[in-house]
Amino acid sequence: MSLQAHSLTCIRGDLQLFADLSFDIQPGDALWVSGTNGSGKTSLLRMLCGLAAPAAGEVRWQGRNIRSLRDEFCSKLIYIGHANGVKDDLMAWENLVISTTLAGDPVSEEEAHQALQHLGLGRAADLPTRALSQGQRKRVALARLSLGMKMPLWILDEPFTALDKSAVAALCGTISKHLSGGGMVIYTTHQEIDLSAKRALRLDMNEGRLC
Ligand SMILES: Nc1ncnc2c1ncn2[C@@H]1O[C@H](COP(=O)(O)OP(=O)(O)OP(=O)(O)O)[C@@H](O)[C@H]1O
């Protein structure tokens, strides 16, 4: 399994955010996409999961352009963006049942409750997510990860934002477990985070290269 960014160029409006960006991610790798505000981190992540098309270059999964793989590629990844993908009107546990069902690997109500409990959301599990705090909403989105260990590729945009210390530690543990099982993680953060990975890589978007 591998994800390859091959000579990617991204243009937004009349601005070229990056050009000729290339890297390879293998099982057990963690790639931290770092850079200043506006340097193109979110734009790159959206490109890597197929939500945005590159102006030039291609993203390859197992050596094939993700544009030709479509659903086959989508079924291998979990993407959690800034907006978290959490539906306000649904209870926390319902969000998990629905997101796993849409991903083709549905969990039961009990499994959803257990995942939320693990992230300290036991009592909040039965509330509509609109009633939760920012950090709690983030936890609901991230509970999806402990249910998605089978998905080899996780792409996470600022997963640590709004989390308190204990939730950051729990999330680091979940990500490290995924990596030790051969998963791959690409993430952005403005925090210093310590993950145990086979290869802990950093892509500096201001430099436009791996450091
Ligand atoms: N659809 C768009 N049209 C025009 N400009 C865009 C579009 N999407 C993003 N941009 C611009 O591209 C730049 C990079 O945005 P992006 O969200 O990728 O940055 P980022 O590195 O993730 O920033 P942050 O650290 O603040 O989250 C910004 O200047 C943004 O305004």
Automatic annotation (TrEMBL):
Molecular-function GO term, any one: ATP hydrolysis activity
Domain (ABC transporter) ranges: 3-210
GO terms classed as biological process: cytochrome complex assembly
Pfam families: ABC_tran
UniProt keyword list: ATP-binding, Cell membrane, Cytochrome c-type biogenesis, Membrane, Nucleotide-binding, Translocase, Transport
SUPFAM superfamilies: P-loop containing nucleoside triphosphate hydrolases
UniProt superkingdom: Bacteria
The protein's name: Heme ABC transporter ATP-binding protein CcmA
